[in-house]
C-alpha cells in the first residue's frame, strides 16, 4: 500500500489487476484501485475536484480532471475518512498514476491541494 500525508490529509492507495480484454482491435489491461482519504488535521475539509496523470509503459500520458470522486464531494471532519474504489484502462501491462485532490478547509475557507502519491499499475505476468 502506498501512503502520503499532505497538510494533515493522509492518502492511502491499494491496486489490483482486473484482467485483459480487446477494445477497438487493441488489447487493454484493466486495473482497479482503492483510495482512502483520512483527515488527520484539526479542521473540517471537503474534496471538490481531482486531477490524474496516467502513464503507460508505451510513454503515453493522459491527464484527467473532474469534479469530486465517483460522483461525490465528501466532507471530512477531523478523524473521519472516505474510501472509494475506481479503475483505469491501459494499453500496456505496466503503468502508473499520480495526481492531486483540490480541497477546501472550512475553518479558513482556503483551497489547497493534497498530493496523490505515484502508484504503480502492474499486470502480474509482466514482472518476474
General description of the model:
One of its GO terms (biological process) is error-free translesion synthesis. Residues 3-128 form the ApaG domain. This is Co2+/Mg2+ efflux protein ApaG. It is a single chain. By secondary structure, this protein is an all-beta fold. It has a single domain (2-124), classed as Immunoglobulin-like. Helices cover 0% and strands 70% of the residues. It contains no helices and nine strands. The protein has strands spanning 2-6, 9-23, 26-39, 45-56, 61-67, 75-76, 81-90, 94-105, 111-122. Strands 4, 5, 6, 8 and 9 form a five-stranded antiparallel sheet that branches. Strand 1 (2-6) and strand 2 form a beta hairpin.
- Which bin fits the share of residues in helices? under 10%
Give the termini separation. Answer: 20 Å
User: β content, as a range?
Assistant: over 45%
Structural class label: mainly beta
Give me the strand/helix succession: EEEEEEEEE
Under CATH, the homologous superfamily reads ApaG domain
**What does the oligomeric state look like here?**
single chain
The gyration radius over C-alpha positions equals: 16 Å
CATH class: Mainly Beta
The biggest beta sheet, please? 5 strands, antiparallel
Shape: elongated
Amino acid at each position: 500500500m502506498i501512503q502520503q500525508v499532505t497538510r494533515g490529509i493522509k492518502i492511502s492507495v491499494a491496486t489490483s489487476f482486473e484482467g485483459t480484454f480487446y477494445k477497438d482491435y487493441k488489447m487493454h489491461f484493466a486495473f482497479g484501485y482503492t483510495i482512502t482519504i483520512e483527515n488527520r488535521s484539526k479542521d473540517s475539509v471537503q474534496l471538490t475536484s481531482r486531477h490524474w496523470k496516467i502513464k503507460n509503459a508505451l510513454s503515453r500520458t493522459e491527464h484527467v480532471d473532474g469534479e469530486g470522486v465517483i460522483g461525490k464531494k465528501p466532507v471530512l471532519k477531523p478523524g473521519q475518512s472516505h474510501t472509494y474504489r475506481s479503475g483505469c484502462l491501459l494499453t500496456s501491462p505496466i503503468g502508473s498514476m499520480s495526481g492531486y485532490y483540490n480541497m477546501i478547509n472550512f475553518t479558513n475557507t482556503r483551497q489547497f491541494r493534497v498530493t496523490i502519491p505515484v502508484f504503480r499499475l502492474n499486470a502480474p505476468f509482466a514482472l518476474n
